[in-house]
């Protein structure tokens, strides 16, 4: 008795120890998970700055629109997957703020992690528990790539939540091993599966297939073949019956709604992303297997030293801690590698430029663009920012430039990067901007950024009826509603909006004379704008910029007299440089409208010529030294045809 | 036991929430007491859409509207000579009229006045009664269905273009076909024969599947291997005349309407349904004229169409005098049995009217010719100056003079795309009066004397629908029955390779197509961004 008692007390101690170890492990896992998602949140908020996705300006073709109110909601109730799409569309609007965007993505990643973990646990695959992070890592890849797959990931989350619900509700049926009780439990589980399937398919569309597949896996693992068959059949039939026969959607859509095929996600545009994603998943699996082997080896070693370890419980706790640290370190290493490998820096930078340009945050545009963004759209935004900060004529050649990037008309039908149409509006080419933004709305949907601009354009054109329609639509959005409501009230009190400075300014520069062609050469457009309003400073500066970019120093000199319209006492450095070049090359005097050249500019052209001549006028040989000294000057651009080189 | 207790508790919570929601959003009680106790406003209330002083058909869906007067509670009493009064009480300014009672009230009062008494409760709890809004219920019903094209204002990229049908007796709208069924192509110019849907044509343009006309006949769909422009079925249903237009879209640099359209070349041809062949006649395809917008007289003996002089030789640039192009209205006799065309005669000349005459449509009873006139060009929906005009063909037949009059229903914005109901008592048309570029469908009653009464916008279940609606609704065609063809099936036919080959006798309107090639049928022949029209 005493022996047995002693044995049982020994067994109890072992059990207590195991429970303690499990508790430690769970606590460790919880701490690890918390740290992981905290890091995830900080990374997506501060490093990736996901709000740029909201301002993606057409680069993400499937970014959804969302309007408050029942009519918009009702549109989503008419087809399977609609409710999931509605939720995704709502959550997508939260990308308006970076911290909210990061919160939404982190919450989704956490949900994926918890659901996957629960599924693995119920399957008894504790050794594969690390795989619960796979979904979060895939999300991180999407974020690092600045891709938008939110609709799909949302419906997948919904499907996994349903899966957990199903597993939770049928947990007791697993305990029934035989007899009528088991049969009853199976029938109950089958009925529950069908009910949840019908609901889930309506809510999440094609993502239901994941639910059905995982239910089938779980049933097969428990050797409940009848249930597994039901899950497979359900997966095949429910979309057809509910989708095709009841909701009347076509068969292709019935099985793919909310899935990548249906979403037409921009894999086509960024095929590389898919490849990287695949690599990342492989990497995770490989790392996971490595981890698994490590654990196995650790387990064997631990078994060999079982007795000794029992005697040294303190040192056992230390081993658990060590393993936890190793596990966590490996996890973070994997995630870090994934984030680093998949990070699409150029795309992120371009999105940032657009984001700030759309919000007219000009210093931030220049900071995001740096001195090496040479894409047309980035150049266009940089020039816009330089103009609005009053630095175009002084600093433009410190940035890469190209004559074709100054005014992007939209004639090429490239409707991405909406900020370029803001340039048209600011210049006074109102109809051109209207045409382009209307086409943007057709292609990309009723994005608040587009609605806002179309409302503004119609107010400028005194087209009050249409302006109100755009404003009322905008008033149903989440974050631009106040702006819309302000103007709706203003229009009611004063349809002319005569006291509104922005409207007044745009009206003053707007092109008035009508032509049957909207796409005219840029020079003609600027000249026409200046002919109608000689105080259109932007048209003047863009005209001068165009001439400088085209190395037409004679035209720069010829148009210089227009500067008197603006009453500026100083005149920009690059104009002075252009005039110097003209004067030096032609030997003709230039009338400077009562202004004088900065002596430093004279000095610079002499130094520039001196260095160039010292290399025997060999451009190739002189480029380095000249770039170092004069990289940001018009002299350099005029000679070499490019700019933006570091001083 | 514990479980039952929980269920009961949950039930109580749900009930409480339900009661709360009902109390908050449910119909409040209306004003009680005699009318004299109310304050009285000596004006009619502003309602949106404007459903006042108009003539409505008895079979129209309820005219839900929003009361644009400030108040805490609203009461609308709808009544006529006979039948039960409808009272709608609402805390919201949006008035939703019950469908069944509306129908019964209207059907019981054909030809009578329909009155709306509107009362508004202000913050102090005082009810104000406004002057009664009066409409008239026409004795004649409107065709039950309206088929229209719903597109975005730009419509340049061939995204989300659809032909929809709306049951006018309810708010049901269903898709006939949209371009998602054939890889974002374009579809337009849906045309019916005698206001019925057993013969229907839809023009198709697609990068992937070429251009074609989709012919739906008695539920069967066929693809005709050529592009049909504006089409008119002969009343016999044996042939359809269509235009072939070399359309060019261009854009104005500062005009109110950015978009504009010019036909650099056009002619008329006709498709013989029985023999599946395409023909034309020199009289309707003159080298020096632009022919378009065909319309048959009710008896099928005359084809009316628009014709303008073609004064340029290049078909790839917009002529400098594009704003001087004005179309005449002409007609030509036709004998369907012998397939012979008569002599052209001018009905109305642009020189006389000073405007471009477009889109003739003749009422099914043959009495009225409804058309548009605008300052220039061929595309009235882009011209704010476009207004609706009418000619009494009976009088013209008697005195030989086509006297036209401008209708009172016009606005400052464009009116166009009109169609007649099968009983010749109703017209549907597109108008931009709510704000260019948003085109909406309007309905108007035409009485026996040809007076067209104040139009009303197509009613929607949500009375504020048009306030923020970013779609345009164009080419509203009234039909007596729904289109029964299934959209998936139509889509399959468009995508399919099987088509009726068409050997067109002239290639003038599409000069770049080599002889022998079915016009516009080649894959990749049509692309978005080229030309598209509302």
Q: Most extensive interface: pair and counts?
A: A-B, 42 and 36 residues
Main β-sheet description of chain A: none
What is the count of structural domains of chain A?
3
- Proportion of beta-strand residues of chain A: under 5%
Radius of gyration of chain B: 26 Å
| Reported CATH architecture of the largest domain in chain B | 6 Propeller
CATH class of the largest domain in chain B, named Mainly Beta
Anisotropy-based shape of chain A: elongated
Calculate the terminal CA-CA distance of chain A, rounded to whole Å. 91 Å
CATH superfamily descriptor of the largest domain in chain B:
TolB, C-terminal domain
Count of discrete domains of chain B: 2
Fold topology:
The complex is a heterodimer of chains A (647) and B (534).
Chain A: H1 2-47, H2 51-54, H3 70-76, H4 82-93, H5 98-122, H6 134-144, H7 150-169, H8 171-175, H9 179-204, H10 208-221, H11 225-246, H12 251-256, H13 260-263, H14 271-304, H15 306-311, H16 313-342, H17 345-358, H18 362-369, H19 376-388, H20 392-395, H21 419-427, H22 430-444, H23 448-460, H24 464-474, H25 481-493, H26 501-509, H27 522-532, H28 537-549, H29 553-559, H30 573-586, H31 599-614, H32 619-630, H33 634-640
Chain B: H1 2-25, E1 39-40, E2 47-48, E3 55-56, E4 65-67, E5 73-79, E6 86-90, E7 94-95, H2 99-107, E8 113-121, E9 127-129, E10 133-137, E11 145-151, E12 162-167, E13 173-178, E14 186-193, E15 196-205, E16 212-217, E17 220-224, E18 231-233, E19 239-251, E20 259-272, E21 277-279, E22 289-296, E23 302-309, E24 328-335, E25 340-348, H3 350-353, E26 356-362, E27 368-374, E28 387-392, H4 393-399, E29 404-406, E30 415-420, E31 426-431, E32 440-445, E33 456-457, E34 472-479, H5 487-495
Parallel strand pairs in B: 1-9, 3-10
Antiparallel strand pairs in B: 2-4, 4-7, 5-6, 5-8, 8-9, 8-10, 11-12, 11-34, 12-13, 14-15, 15-16, 16-17, 18-19, 19-20, 20-21, 22-23, 23-24, 24-25, 26-27, 27-28, 28-29, 30-31, 31-32, 32-33
Name some characteristics of this structure:
heterodimer, A: 647 residues, mainly alpha, B: 534 residues, mainly beta, Immunoglobulin-like, Neuraminidase, seven-stranded mixed sheet, 5 helices
């Amino acid at each position: 008795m005493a022996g047995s008692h002693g044995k049982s007390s020994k067994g109890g101690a072992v059990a207590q120890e195991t429970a303690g170890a499990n508790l430690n492990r769970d606590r460790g896992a919880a701490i690890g998970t918390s740290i992981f998602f905290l890091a995830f949140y900080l990374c997506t908020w501060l490093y990736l700055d996901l709000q740029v996705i909201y301002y993606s300006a057409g680069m993400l073709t499937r970014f959804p629109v969302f309007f408050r109110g029942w009519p918009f909601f009702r549109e989503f109730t008419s087809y399977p997957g609609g409710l999931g799409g509605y939720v995704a569309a709502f959550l997508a609007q939260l990308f308006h703020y970076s911290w909210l965007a990061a919160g939404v993505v982190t919450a989704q990643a956490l949900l994926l992690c918890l659901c996957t973990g629960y599924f693995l646990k119920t399957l008894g695959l504790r050794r594969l528990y690390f795989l619960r992070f796979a979904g979060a890592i895939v999300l991180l890849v999407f974020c690092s790539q600045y891709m938008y797959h939110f609709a799909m990931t949302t419906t997948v989350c919904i499907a996994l939540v349903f899966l957990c619900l199903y597993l939770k509700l049928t947990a007791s049926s697993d305990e029934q091993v035989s007899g009528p009780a088991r049969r009853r439990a199976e029938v109950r589980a089958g009925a529950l599966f069908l009910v949840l399937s019908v609901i889930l398919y309506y809510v999440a569309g094609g993502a239901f297939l994941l639910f059905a597949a995982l239910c089938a896996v779980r049933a097969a693992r428990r050797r409940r073949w009848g249930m597994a068959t039901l899950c497979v059949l359900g997966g095949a039939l429910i979309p057809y019956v509910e989708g095709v026969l009841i909701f009347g959607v076509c068969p292709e859509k019935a099985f793919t709604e909310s899935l990548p095929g249906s979403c037409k996600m921009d894999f086509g545009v960024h095929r590389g992303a898919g490849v990287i994603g695949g690599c990342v998943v492989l990497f995770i699996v490989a790392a996971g297997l490595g981890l698994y082997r490590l654990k196995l080896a650790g387990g064997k070693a631990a078994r060999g030293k079982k007795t000794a370890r029992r005697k040294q419980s303190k040192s056992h706790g230390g081993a658990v801690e060590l393993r936890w640290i190793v596990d966590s370190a490996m996890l973070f290493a994997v995630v870090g590698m994934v984030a680093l490998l998949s990070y699409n820096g150029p795309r992120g930078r371009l999105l940032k430029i657009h984001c700030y340009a759309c919000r007219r945050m000009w210093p931030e545009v220049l900071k995001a663009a740096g001195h090496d963004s040479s894409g047309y759209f980035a150049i266009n935004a940089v020039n816009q920012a330089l103009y609005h900060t009053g630095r175009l004529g002084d600093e433009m050649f410190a940035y890469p430039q190209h004559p074709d990037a100054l005014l992007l008309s939209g004639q090429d039908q490239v409707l991405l990067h909406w900020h370029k149409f803001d340039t048209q509006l600011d210049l006074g080419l109102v109809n051109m901007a209207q045409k382009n933004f209307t086409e943007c709305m057709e292609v990309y949907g009723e994005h608040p950024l587009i609605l806002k601009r179309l409302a503004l354009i119609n107010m400028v054109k005194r087209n009050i009826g249409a302006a109100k329609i755009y404003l009322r639509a905008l008033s149903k959005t989440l974050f631009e509603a106040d702006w819309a409501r302000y103007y709706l009230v203003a229009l009611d009190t004063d349809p002319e909006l005569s006291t509104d400075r922005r409207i007044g300014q745009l009206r003053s520069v707007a092109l008035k004379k009508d032509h049957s062609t909207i796409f005219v050469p840029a020079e003609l457009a600027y000249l026409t704008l200046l002919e109608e309003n000689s105080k259109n400073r932007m048209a003047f500066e863009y005209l001068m910029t165009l001439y400088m970019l085209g190395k037409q120093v004679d035209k720069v000199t010829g148009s210089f007299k227009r500067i008197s319209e603006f009453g500026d006492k100083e005149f920009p450095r690059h104009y002075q440089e252009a005039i110097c070049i003209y004067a030096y090359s032609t030997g003709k005097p230039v009338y400077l409208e009562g202004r004088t050249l900065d002596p430093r500019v004279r000095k610079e052209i002499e130094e520039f010529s001196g260095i160039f001549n010292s290399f025997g006028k060999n451009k190739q040989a002189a480029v380095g030294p000249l770039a170092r000294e004069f990289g940001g000057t018009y002299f350099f651009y005029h000679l070499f045809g490019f700019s933006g080189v570091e001083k | 036991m514990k479980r039952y207790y929980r269920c009961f508790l949950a039930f109580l919570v749900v009930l409480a929430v339900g009661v709360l929601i009902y109390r908050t959003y449910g119909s409040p009680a209306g004003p009680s007491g005699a009318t004299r106790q109310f304050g009285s406003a000596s004006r009619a209330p502003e309602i949106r859409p404007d459903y006042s002083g108009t003539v409505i058909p008895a079979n129209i869906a309820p005219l839900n509207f929003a009361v644009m007067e400030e108040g805490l509670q609203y009461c609308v009493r709808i009544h006529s000579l006979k039948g039960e009064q409808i009272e709608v009480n609402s805390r919201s300014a949006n008035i939703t009229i019950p469908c069944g009672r509306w129908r019964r009230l209207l059907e019981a009062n054909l030809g009578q006045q329909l009155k709306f008494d509107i009362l508004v409760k202000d913050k102090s709890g005082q009810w104000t009664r406004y002057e009664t809004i009066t409409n008239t219920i026409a004795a004649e019903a409107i065709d039950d269905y309206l088929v229209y094209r719903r597109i975005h204002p730009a419509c340049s990229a061939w995204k989300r273009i659809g032909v929809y049908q709306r049951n006018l007796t309810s708010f049901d709208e269903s898709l006939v076909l949209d371009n998602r069924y054939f890889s974002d192509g374009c579809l337009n110019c849906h045309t019916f024969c005698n206001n019925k849907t057993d013969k229907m044509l839809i023009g198709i343009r697609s990068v992937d599947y070429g251009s074609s006309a989709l012919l739906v006949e008695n539920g069967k769909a066929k693809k005709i291997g050529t592009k049909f422009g504006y089409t008119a079925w002969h009343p016999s249903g044996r042939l359809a005349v269509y235009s072939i237009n070399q359309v060019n879209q261009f854009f104005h640099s500062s005009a109110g309407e950015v978009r504009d359209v010019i036909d650099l070349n056009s002619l008329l041809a006709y498709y013989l349904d029985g023999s599946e062949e395409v023909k034309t006649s020199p009289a309707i395809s003159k080298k020096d004229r632009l022919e378009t917008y065909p319309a048959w007289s009710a008896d099928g003996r005359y084809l009316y169409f628009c014709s303008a002089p073609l004064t340029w030789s290049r078909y790839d640039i917009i002529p400098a005098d594009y704003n001087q192009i004005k179309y005449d209205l002409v007609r030509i006799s036709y004998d369907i049995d012998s397939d012979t065309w008569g002599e052209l005669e001018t009905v109305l000349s642009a020189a006389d009217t000073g405007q471009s005459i477009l889109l003739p449509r003749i009422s099914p009873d043959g009495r009225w010719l409804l058309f548009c006139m605008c300052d220039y060009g061929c595309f009235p929906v882009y011209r704010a100056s476009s207004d609706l005009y009418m000619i009494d063909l009976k009088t013209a037949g008697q005195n030989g003079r086509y006297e036209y009059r401008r209708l009172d229903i016009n606005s400052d914005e464009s009116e166009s795309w009109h169609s007649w109901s099968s009983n010749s008592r109703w017209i549907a048309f597109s108008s931009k009066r709510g704000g260019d570029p948003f085109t909406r469908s309007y309905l108007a009653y035409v009485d026996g004397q040809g007076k067209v009464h104040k139009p009303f916008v197509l009613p929607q279940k949500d009375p504020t629908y048009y306030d923020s609606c970013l779609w345009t609704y164009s080419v509203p065609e009234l039909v007596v029955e729904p289109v029964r063809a299934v959209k998936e099936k139509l889509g399959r036919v468009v995508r399919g390779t099987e088509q009726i080959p068409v050997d067109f006798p002239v290639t003038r309107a599409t000069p770049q197509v080599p002889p022998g090639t079915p016009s516009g049928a080649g894959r990749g022949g049509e692309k978005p961004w080229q030309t598209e029209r509302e």
